[in-house]
Amino acid sequence: MKIKNISLFILLLAGIASCSKQSAPPPPSSLTIINGVVGSAPLVTNFSGTDSLTWYLGANQIVYNTFSTDEYNNNNRVTFNPGMQKLALYQYPDTLQKDKPLFNLTLNLSSGSINSLFLTGTINAPDTLFTTDKLPLHAVSDSAAGIRFVNLSPNSAPVSINITGKNNGSEVTTLPYKGITEFKSYPATQDIGSYTFEFRDAATGALLVTYTADGINNAESDPYAPSKIWRYKNTTLALLGLPGGSGDAAQTVLMINNY
Predict the structure, then answer these.
(1) Does pTM top 0.70 for this prediction?
(2) Is 5 inside any structural domain?
């Protein structure tokens, strides 16, 4: 009788353990959203698709050519349970059901994935580029930074990218509109202060815009040092704006801190 009771107890524990394993939630998915839509107002996110927003005043807004590196105040990065996710984006303040969203998307986010949604084009011809990101790991002994490039400049000719002083195309030979590279590892040792990248017309070599990744060798003891952004991290440099544009529509480069 005692043996029978012990057996039942063991089976009960096994059942509880099995239920615990089955009920464990899958890892969430991460999504970074970048507003590269030339001429757009701040884009309000509605994660219920085109249904009315429950909390209008507190709705997330994604501003053109902006990315916050403050992990505690970052409107560009959200997490979801994996699976199909609705996402509508409205130009502020057009967020009512009668208003037409600039984007009305359904994303399939796999468990534990890290994803980027680049919103591009213009308000008259909006466009998207979605990627599931494969982020390289940087060992502490390597003192390296991962950088990739994406062309979000609508209707632009292919661009080449080089480091100042090096041959045209030394980093990227040709990058068409909506083209994106893999992450490349760059040394981030104490003897390297910065990298200046030049974005050029791939055919003519004409300089379009430059971007300087500055402060790579700043002291690690400074919590606000740029080296906290670059060293051991992965970063995207995005070309935004219109070819030949001026003012807010001019071509520029946005730094996006991934992980």
Answers:
(1) yes
(2) no
